[in-house]
Design brief:
Number of strands: 21
Number of helices: 6
Shape: globular
Distance between the termini: 38 Å
Oligomer: single chain
CATH superfamily of the largest domain: Baseplate protein-like domain - beta roll fold
Largest sheet: 13 strands, mixed
Helix content: 10-25%
Number of domains: 4
CATH class of the largest domain: Mainly Beta
Structural class: mainly beta
CATH topology of the largest domain: Phage tail proteins - horseshoe like beta roll fold
Strand content: 35-45%
Length: 348
């Protein structure tokens, strides 16, 4: 791969006179964020004006858009004699307004629409919108709670359908499912991994997950004593956990919740952070949160598909480094990795 050239588009011009820059993207965050430090080469007043609060900003790596958003904060600083001066600028993508701003709707009552349609109903005046590449179920009726944010309105509906809200480079929000796409090549120790660390942490896993609840009406055991159990054979000690289902449930839904709880705990038990040179996979695609990548590191005791949970794109005088936050796909409801050869405790 050739060198990455990051440029900041602001005020109709491309800017590259920065000391260092970071762009952060995460699968479980609806807005991307950025931070960069610039020298006041064009004069402090002109530079401060250029990056005033609220100024629209686009950040590219080569021709690929990383973030479309605005400046949230600007911090000029200087010290020493002669003074060393710089300005730190931070901000988020356009979808930050969906996180911070309240849902707006004439009646507050929305019927028979999917979560993305509901989201776009309550954010018509906002610059960012919701998109999805999944088949979402319609919500029979949704009542907007006064004062709730646009994000909260959509996130709870998407979560009920096993979806996640992820910020897009263009500033919109994807309602999507983890692991639906895959990066080319892999992350291989001795080939393209510059360094990394891993957490093999079973402290939140249990030997058995027991979900208990009841139906608001009806008689008999199936309604008054709903219970489902799911065992995790990798946990050898007696270590059960009981989950009380507050809302209406039945045996099928209780069984699903017990299984989901077990799988997510197993997924969260394996995480890694890996650094690579450059911002792209072997096929030239920019690293993308929510995508799968084969990861193989004997030292980290990992050999399986991992899900990219977050990416930090960093560039300074030392070059371009991507830091990938990885997790087992089951953390987000994904499948157990085929070909999994990670540590013995992860084998089924």
């Amino acid at each position: 791969m050739g060198p990455e050239i990051i440029t900041i588009v602001v005020g109709g011009a491309r800017w590259s006179a920065f000391e260092k820059i970071n762009v952060h993207a995460a699968f479980n965050e609806a807005a991307r964020s950025f931070s960069f430090e610039v020298a006041a080469e064009m004069g402090s007043s002109a530079t401060n004006r250029l990056f005033a609060k609220g100024t629209p900003v686009k950040i590219y790596t080569n021709a690929d858009l990383l973030l479309d958003g605005q400046v949230d904060k600007r911090q000029p600083q200087f010290e020493g004699d002669p003074p060393k001066a710089s300005i730190t600028v931070t901000g988020r993508s356009k979808s930050a307004d969906l996180i911070d701003g309240s849902a707006e709707h004439e009646t507050g009552s929305i019927k028979s629409k999917t979560p993305d349609q509901i989201g776009n109903e309550v954010c018509k005046k906002y610059a960012a919108k919701f998109r999805t590449d999944q088949q979402l179920d319609k919500v029979e009726k949704y009542q907007v709670t006064p004062g709730e944010s646009v994000f909260r309105c959509v996130e709870k509906l998407a979560r009920q359908q096993g979806m996640t809200l992820a910020g897009r480079p263009d500033g919109d929000v994807d309602i999507t499912k983890a692991g639906s796409k895959r990066h080319a090549g892999g992350l291989i120790e001795g080939v393209n991994i510059k360094g990394g660390s891993a957490d093999h942490d079973g402290s939140n896993q249990h030997s058995e997950y027991i979900v208990r609840g009841q139906r608001p009406s009806g008689h008999g055991e199936d309604n008054l004593e709903v219970e489902a159990r799911e065992k995790d054979e990798t946990v050898k000690r007696h270590r059960p956990v009981v989950i009380v289902q507050d809302e209406d449930t039945d045996k099928k839904r209780a069984k699903k919740r017990a299984k989901n709880r077990k799988e997510r705990a197993a997924g969260d038990a394996l995480k890694a952070t890996i650094r690579v040179q450059g911002f792209r996979d072997e096929g030239g695609t920019v690293w993308t949160p929510g995508w799968l990548i084969w990861t193989e590191s004997p030292f980290l005791d990992i050999a399986q598909d991992m899900l990219i949970e977050s990416v930090d794109f960093d560039q300074d005088d030392g070059g371009s480094i991507a830091t990938l936050g990885l997790t087992d796909p089951r953390s987000y409801g994904g499948e157990d990795s085929k070909g999994n050869k990670s540590g013995e405790e992860w084998k089924r």
